[in-house]
Amino acid sequence: MAKWTRYLVPHLYTADPHAHVFDGKLYIYPSHDIDAGIPENDNGDHFAMCDYHVFSMDEIDGEVTDHGVALDVEDIPWAGRQLWDCDCACKDGKYYLYFPVKDQNDIFRIGVAISDKPEGPFIPQEKPLEGSYSIDPCVFRDADGSHYMYFGGIWGGQLQSYRSNKAVEGGQEPLDNEPALPARVVKLSDDMFQFGEEPRAVLLLDENGEELKAGDHDRRFFEAAWVHEYQGKYYFSYSTGNTQKICYAMGDNPYGPFTYEGVILTPVVGWTTHHSIAAFKGKWYLFYHDCVPSGGKTWLRSMKVCELEFREDGTICTIDGGGR
Ligand code: FUB
């Protein structure tokens, strides 16, 4: 187990916690899990979330404030069902909440909602971002002020249904010896409401410079992209899905390619694993979730935090998730 871990919210089930520091305060943007009574399946239908709450903290071990409902699926004009992992970015005093939800044809798209405050409430745009697809947006602000969105997730996240940013009929995962499906990265437009370019593949390379293969379930990308920068290097971290690891790869710029480095978090109790990494008041933290408080119900997760340690060479010390 990690040296110090803390469950953050006892009164709601929360997952996929994406943490950011805005004006010296830590804000967390998680999914809000509910028990919708839908049987578990590989499509993730049982993750039937309907709204988001935003949380904030002045100290990592201090009180966690629940700011209430920040966005409700009922208020998104184009939405159908399933509000999955969201993320927030700040530009010029405005806050942009990016979220995936299935549209009325049951296709995941990524939407954006805006607020003057980091905790919302957020007002959604009339339509999803043009050309968006799949799930799990995370937004990284580079030192020059550009914002990059990383997104994608296979199986229930529908990424296997796209090639070169176009939907393909009957899309499947590649064969085991073919390159794995990549996450996508795209620079956002200056106004933050659209993609500023065509999304590109996030290439994950092995130690020989070869792309990770689809059959390499212990290392290939599945979902839950996150990017942070540390000492001039860009770290792309992600979930391996069915093998339940949070792994990371390192690169020299926000587009990659990224070379696989190792495991940040071993399996947790539950099925999904999803995280974020943020520095707050001089220390680095891993935010993640597990299903211990719900007694192992995979669709009722609880977010938590622990300290993250870097070695001198910039590699990350592995944290024991306590599962499997
Ligand atoms: O919370 C719903 C989905 O489960 C997320 O979008 C995935 O990353 C997984 O955590």
TrEMBL record:
Q: Which residues form the signal peptide?
A: none
Provide a Gene Ontology MF annotation, just one: hydrolase activity, hydrolyzing O-glycosyl compounds
Keyword vocabulary terms for this entry: Carbohydrate metabolism, Glycosidase, Hydrolase, Polysaccharide degradation, Xylan degradation
The source's superkingdom equals: Bacteria
| Residues marked Important for catalytic activity, responsible for pKa modulation of the active site Glu and correct orientation of both the proton donor and substrate (site) | D136
One biological process term from GO is: xylan catabolic process
Keyword Iron set for record: no
According to its UniProt record, what is one Pfam family this protein matches?
A: Glyco_hydro_43
Q: Which InterPro entries match?
A: Glyco_hydro_43, Glyco_hydro_beta-prop_sf, Glycosyl_Hydrlase_43_Enz
User: Which family does the entry's similarity section mention?
Assistant: Belongs to the glycosyl hydrolase 43 family.
| Full protein name | Xylosidase/arabinosidase
**Organismal lineage:** Bacteria, Pseudomonadati, Kiritimatiellota, Kiritimatiellia, Kiritimatiellales
